[in-house]
UniProtKB/TrEMBL annotation:
Pfam families: MarR_2. Residues 12-144 form the HTH marR-type domain. InterPro entries: HTH_MarR-typ (IPR000835), MarR/SlyA-like (IPR039422), WH-like_DNA-bd_sf (IPR036388), WH_DNA-bd_sf (IPR036390). This is MarR family transcriptional regulator. SMART domains: HTH_MARR.
Length: 149
């Protein structure tokens, strides 16, 4: 009798299976590497987005990350509770708030980015550097081509 976890070659070569299980593995690695950083991979994504831009509204950030408004509010509430972000009235439009990283948020971002880099290195460890770079390039092209980035 074979290994019950072996799905067989027909399933293993399907892109949906490969991408799903690569993502699951990367999420496991991120959870392990980010454990001491104070943020999750999802929170890291939000911090990275906010650090890269002028202060913007939570609605703008939600749109850029591709999450619904309710999820974004919950995500920012968590980051605000950790003192990593602050919401302030927009000087150009007092009816809306903008979200900015705090100094603690920037320090956490530095630590968490290094941890995320290590998780990605571990995932790609079986690929030689040119193949790892090619995988990133090809996935980036798929994301851009699908309107996702």
């Amino acid at each position: 009798m074979g290994d019950e976890r072996d799905v067989g070659p027909a399933v293993r070569r399907r892109l949906i299976y490969q991408l799903k299980h690569s993502l699951l593995r990367l999420e496991e690695l991120h959870a392990a590497h980010l454990e001491g950083s104070g943020v999750t991979a999802r929170e890291l994504g939000a911090l990275l987005l906010l650090a890269d831009r002028e202060p913007e509204s939570q609605q703008q950030a939600a749109l850029r990350l591709g999450v619904d408004r309710t999820s974004m509010v919950a995500l920012l509430d968590g980051l605000e509770a950790k003192a990593f972000v602050v919401r302030r009235p927009d000087p150009a439009d007092r009816r809306r708030n903008v979200v900015e990283l705090t100094d603690a948020g920037r320090a956490t971002l530095d630590v968490a980015t290094r941890a995320s880099d290590e998780a990605e290195r571990e995932l790609l460890a079986d690929l030689d550097p040119p193949d790892a770079a090619l995988l990133r390039e090809l996935l980036g092209r798929l994301v851009i081509g699908s309107g996702g980035g």
